[in-house]
Amino acid sequence: xxxxxxxxxxxxxxxxxxxxxxxxxxxxxxxxxxxxxxxxxxxxxxxxxxxxxxxxxxxxxxxxxxxxxxxxxxxxxxxxxxxxxxxxxxxxxxxxxxxxxxxxxxxxxxxxxxxxxxxxxxxxxxxxxxxxxxxxxxxxxxxxxxxxxxxxxxxxxxxxxxxxxxxxxxxxxxxxxxxxxxxxxxxxxxxxxxxxxxxxxxxxxxxxxxxxxxxxxxxxxxxxxxxxxxxxxxxxxxxxxxxxxxxxxxxxxxxxxxxxxxxxxxxxx
Amino acid sequence: xxxxxxxxxxxxxxxxxxxxxxxxxxxxxxxxxxxxxxxxxxxxxxxxxxxxxxxxxxxxxxxxxxxxxxxxxxxxxxxxxxxxxxxxxxxxxxxxxxxxxxxxxxxxxxxxxxxxxxxxxxxxxxxxxxxxxxxxxxxxxxxxxxxxxxxxxxxxxxxxxxxxxxxxxxxxxxxxxxxxxxxxxxxxxxxxxxxxxxxxxxxxxxxxxxxxxxxxxxxxxxxxxxxxxxxxxx
Lengths: 269, 234
Description:
The complex is a heterodimer of chains A (269) and B (234).
Chain A: H1 6-10, E1 18-21, E2 36-38, E3 43-47, H2 54-62, E4 74-77, H3 84-88, E5 95-98, H4 110-120, H5 128-139, H6 155-168, E6 174-178, H7 187-196, E7 200-204, H8 208-213, E8 216-221, E9 224-229, H9 236-257
Parallel strand pairs in A: 3-7, 3-8, 5-6, 6-7
Antiparallel strand pairs in A: 1-2, 1-4, 8-9
Chain B: E1 2-7, H1 14-24, E2 30-36, H2 42-50, E3 54-58, H3 64-81, E4 86-90, E5 105-112, H4 119-122, H5 124-128, E6 132-136, H6 143-156, E7 161-164, H7 173-181, E8 219-220, E9 231-232
Parallel strand pairs in B: 1-4, 1-5, 2-3, 2-4, 5-6, 6-7
Antiparallel strand pairs in B: 8-9
């Protein structure tokens, strides 16, 4: 990891504990948990089949649901309903959601977009724009330049920029990432960076590596939480193997991209 | 009677926002008027879904905001006869120059979060004269995009209330409903006026002359190379 990754982590984040109170599944039956607490620095993976309610779960957190969403869940911050400014004033909002959408429709250059975001947050520009772009460029293999138009960035570049923005500019203590694996970005670098910065991260994911790198897994089905799993080191051996496999696949991907024919013989699994 | 006027460009989600308002208001407490230029079916859909009195006005050759101004007094009378507590008027959302909001009402501008960073600047009067800007489709954009879009709204209307919503699901609507709860009754119907200034009136194109070229027209017109010269009399 590059040195610049450590700089976002050195800023002090204001920490919050988020509590999720149960709602109901699609049949209206109550969810089988009493309260879920997300503590500062937690990494959590939300898993489950397509349509099982994963995105709805993080959306509840994003909007600080108060029983007013389809799921009926309630979100507390430090044990109480959040103050209105957390929801209404983005500069006070401790949560940043990076959506599944890999396109950003802002009709601005990267530089203008970040500068306007800094202005919205009443932050001095300083070197934040360069810092954000540098961090984003560690998450993606296709370099982002400050003069590029936001709308012409690739899916991976857009995601990388929005994650770097959430860390450097929004400075959000809680980041929600919806299917980070859909875009071409270095997942392990993103996860390491967010962990180092003390951010609470919730991944909606179908990716084994992202799931295994998280401290806890929330399993969804039929619109409700089915189970909360805490492997607590039990999966360490599998994680090592999956990390190796992932590195192997990444190296194959790079070789294929560069136009190689992969002619070596390998043992059947 | 309480008057709610909803404006916003086509496909911004005006009707979706109104559906959420109706879902949260006491049952059968509202009447609904949709104003459009060529085509509208929202009145039938709303009537069927909520069982409330609903009407539409197709303005045809007339400017839809102009049509709205003309019929608003009649519509208030109609809603009163129907026993409604609220009249909700949905504008056609075509004109970015005029605004349909009146005094003694709640003016709501509906804008889509995916309509582009410059869109708030282009519809500045529609936002600046509203009480509330409801930003729809926020579920499709990430936090930074939301904040940048919001900054555009703040640039044109520093004091407007901003409510972000996924209007299909209804997130964020609790704040809109709080403002509707605080809405006051119309005190004196005859004193209701438009909040904004309507555009300068008539030129010969407005009254139906179709010939092309400068020499056929007079009134309030602009030349391409001579923008200061606004008026040409005969």
